[in-house]
Write a structure and sequence with these properties.
By secondary structure, the chain is α+β, with helices and mostly antiparallel strands. The chain contains seven helices and 14 strands.
């Protein structure tokens, strides 16, 4: 069995709360130099960009030295660089800190803010913001919450403890309860448990239910409903964590969550997010036994869903 090579620390500091990109050269390859591999690997950078970065010393090895244009290819070598940070539309809502100690930070994330850097959302993410605002460069996310969903997210302070908290989610030892605002259907019997098989294909925005062994399970309960044609507030308790699971299950029951741009139909892409009409889904509570301290934790989001607290304003054109 091949011994796993430890990953050395990054020679580059964070930039705006974002880590430098780490690239590891494959153990098997036909490249003669590091430059040849980087040009072949980073094709999205555009013609001449990688060469320009090498000439300017933007790529660093584990020793902190710039990679020379003629540096020979070394299998397994690590290289770091900073990605170009594009201007992002600021999400005009704060990240609230619900709890902070020497091991964890529990944040109350607003709608529209991604949890961690991904795709076009890099600096405008909860992780990058918290690193900057709290001064904790080692902060990491123990799990993810969809960008359009608001509510509680658990972050870890110490890198060596991150795995213990991630294991809680992997082993389903965290109780998460969500709230959603959606249409009311008096004919639908609740509570009920929805079990189905959900697939999310790469490049396709919406997930879907298919035939086969269930991989997603959600307990759906009616919390309360408005009279006449008003909406209802639902309590959703997932036993699994498939992509868009709660949104897919609610839609499958004929109760698409208000403000959802994907279910029941994918809305036409607009120029930017409409911050006035967020998805009415909230990660309300988070409960678990701390794997490091043994403490029993129960956290609750202080946010409210707009379509429930002020439906007339929500429904106004």
């Amino acid at each position: 069995m091949r011994r796993k090579t430890p990953i050395p620390p990054s020679p580059l500091p964070q930039r705006q709360g974002v880590d430098a990109v780490r690239v590891r050269l494959p153990r098997e390859g036909v490249w003669g130099t590091v430059r040849e591999y980087l040009v072949a690997r980073l094709t999205g950078a555009g013609p001449g960009v990688v060469d320009g970065m090498i000439d300017s010393g933007a790529f660093l090895g584990a020793d902190g030295r710039a990679v020379a244009p003629d540096a020979p290819y070394v299998p397994g070598m690590f290289v770091w660089f900073h990605r170009a940070l594009a201007d992002e539309v600021p999400v005009p809502f704060p990240v609230e800190v619900v709890h902070r100690d020497e091991h964890i930070v529990v944040a109350d994330k607003p709608h529209f803010l991604a949890t961690t850097p991904r795709g076009s959302h890099v600096t405008e993410t909860a992780l990058a913001r918290l690193r900057r605002e709290l001064g904790i460069p080692e902060l990491s996310a123990a799990h993810r919450l969809d960008r359009l969903t608001a509510g509680l997210v658990l972050f870890t302070v110490r890198p060596e403890e991150r795995g213990a908290y991630q294991t809680l989610f992997r082993d389903r030892r965290v109780r998460k309860v969500y709230e959603a605002v959606a249409p009311y259907d008096a004919s639908l019997s609740l509570p009920r448990t929805r079990r189905s098989r959900i697939v999310k294909e790469r490049g396709v925005l919406a997930a879907r239910e298919v035939e086969g062994e269930p991989n997603a399970e959600t307990l759906l309960e009616l919390a309360e409903h408005r009279p006449a044609d008003g909406p209802a507030r639902y309590r959703l308790t997932p036993a699994t964590g498939q992509t868009h699971q709660l949104r897919v299950h609610m839609n499958a029951l004929g109760l698409p969550i208000l403000g959802d741009p994907l279910y029941p139909e994918v809305a036409p892409a607009g120029p930017a997010d409409d911050f006035r009409r967020p998805l009415q889904l909230l990660a309300r509570t988070l409960e678990f036994t701390d794997p490091v301290t043994g403490a029993e934790h129960r956290f609750r989001s202080g946010r409210e869903l707009q379509a429930w607290t002020s439906y007339e304003e929500w429904a106004a054109p």
